[in-house]
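Protocol step 4 of 6.
Sequence for Homoserine kinase (Globicatella sulfidifaciens DSM 15739) entered exactly as in the expression construct, tag removed. Do not edit the line below.
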Amino acid sequence: MSQFEIKVPATTANLGVGFDSIGLALNKFLTVKASPADNWQFNFKDAFLKVLPNNEQNLVAKVANKVASKFKQTMPPLRVEMSSEIPLTHGLGSSSSAIVAGIELANHFVQLNLTQEQKILIATEIEGHPDNVGPCVTGGLFIGAYENGVLFYETADFNHVGIILSIPDYELSTAEVRKVLPAEYSKEAIILQNAYSNIMTAAMLKGDFEKMGAMMMKDLIHEPYRQPLIKEFDAVKNIALTTGAFATVISGAGPTILTLCPVERKEAILQSLNSMVPECRHEITTVYP
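Step 5 output, C-alpha cells:
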C-alpha cells in the first residue's frame, strides 16, 4: 500500500462560555505521512516533537491500534513522518489532532470506511468531550454534546472575523488546569452561563460580533479560575480590547490566548501586542476551511 498523507487542523475550544462544547478549526496543521513498515517508527520533522515517543507508544499509533481493534481488525505497523504547526500542551488541540490522525490512519489502512459522525464519536470517546476533536474532523465552527456514548453536534461556517493567537513560551496541561475548577457551581451561575452561551451562539450565527464578544467574556465556569495561571492574560486582553477587539479569552485549556476582532483591526492589534507583550508569540490565523 502506498504512502498516505493526512493534515489535521489545530483547534481553539471553549470560546469563553462554550466550555467543553464549542470549538473552531484553525489554519495550523499536524501533517502525517505514513506507509507500511515492519514496526511502528516515527520520524519527527520539527525539533519540539522529539519529546514524543517514536514507537508504538506514540498517541497516533495507540489510537490507530485501538480503533482497528474496536472493529476487530489488525492495524499494520507504519513508518510515520510527522510535522506540526501546533505547539504541544498550549490549548490549540495538539492531542486532539493526534487522536484524529490516528483514527484517519486506521480508517485508511484497515479500510474501515468510517463516516464523519463515527470519527467524531470515536475521538470523543477517547478525549472525553467533543469541542476539540469535533472541529478537527469537520472544520469550521463545531458545537457538540456527549453523554453516555451518545453524541449530538452541529456545524456552521464562521468567517469575517480576525483571529489572533498569543502564545506564551510555557506549557499548561489540561489535567493541571482542570484541578483549579470548583467541584460545584451555584444554580444561579449555571442559569446565567446557559443564557450567555445561548446568546453568544446566536450572535455568532447572525454575525453580531459585538454581542458575541460581550457574551464570550462572561464565562463563570472556567475562565475566572484559569486566567490567573496565565500571567500575560490581563495585559493581552486590555491591549486587544483597547485596540478594537471583540473579545479575548483562553484558547482551550491555555496558556494560548485567543483574540477575536474585526478583520480590518487585526494588524493594528497584532502590532500593539508585539510591542507591549513581547513575552508571547503573537500571530494572525484564520478559520479552516
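Step 6, annotate. The first strand starts at residue 4 and ends at 13.
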